[in-house]
Structures are given as C-alpha cells and as structure tokens.
Model the fold of this input.
Amino acid sequence: MWSSELMPVTRPSDQACGKTTMTNKKIYATDGEKLAVAKQEALAGLAEGGIPIGAALFDEDGHLLGKGRNKRVQEGNPALHGETSAFLAAGRQRSYRKVTLATTLSPCWYCSGLVRQFRIGRVVVGDTANFVGGQDWVAAHGAEVVTMDDPELIGMMGTWIAGHGELWNEDIGEE
Ligand SMILES: [Zn+2]
Done:
C-alpha cells in the first residue's frame, strides 16, 4: 500500500508560481553571451536618454535570473544602478555563491558592496577602461572577476561620458 505521504499531489500553487521548471529556459553558456544581455540593457538605457550601464544575473547553469539598467534619469532613482536593477529583477535568491553578475562597466563601490555582501561568486566586467570601482576588492574577498574589455562597450561608454560629464559625476559620487 502507498501511504498517503507518497501519493503524488498537485497543488495549485505549483502551477501558479512559475518557478516549477527551468528546463525550457534559454541557457547563456559563455561569459560573452552573458555580457551581451547586459549590453542590450545598456543600449536600451542609451536609447532612453539614460546612463548606458546594464547588468544581468545568471544561475550556475546559465539561466537568466534578472536583468536591468541604470535608471537614475528614467525613474529619478539614484539607487538603480545597472547591477542593483538586475539584483532587484532577480528577486529573492537563497544563495549567490554560484551566481554570475555580468555588468557592462566595472562595478562602482556601491555595487561592489552588493557583490561582497551577498557573496556573488562571479563578476563579468565589460569595460575597465572608463571606470574601475571595487572589482579588485571583491576579487580579494573571493569573487572570481573576469574582465572582458569589450571594445564596443568601451567606445560607447567613453563617448557617453565625454558628452555627459555632470550626470556621470552625479552617478559615481564625484564633485
Ligand atoms: Zn554601481
């Protein structure tokens, strides 16, 4: 006899929560594919007249957990950097140790603090030519930091900074 505990039971909440299966979701296998998602976000921000920095979080299998972009201009929200927008979009995660954060620009100290606090395991950085925050610091504390230095991103961000010095300094806390 099967005990009632072993009987398969379908609960309505299993279907409603949308988290029961990840098997159909696209896998972003390489760091280049992960960075490309962040880059799409940065370019969307650029098109919106915002600060063109994007980011995305992936689980250890390469599933996209969440993506986002800097929304200082669009939403008037100084807390929404690319990385923090992606972090919010990903929602609650039990652990970040096997999560990869791809970001188009080297994370500022604020976002480096996010990486350090939640022990995000890997950080893929698209551009260290225009800005470097705390990426060496998070690496010293155990995160794997991969620098891609994508020429297209470096060119885009350099051009943008050159034309928006005041807004850029506001975003990174410079006078
Ligand atoms: Zn930041």
Q: What stands out?
A: The longest helix spans residues 31-47. The domain at 26-172 is CATH 3.40.140.10 (Cytidine Deaminase; domain 2). The pocket of zinc ion is lined by residues 81, 83, 107-108, 110-111 (CB under 6 Å). The helical segments are 12-16, 31-47, 82-90, 109-118, 135-140, 151-163, 165-172.
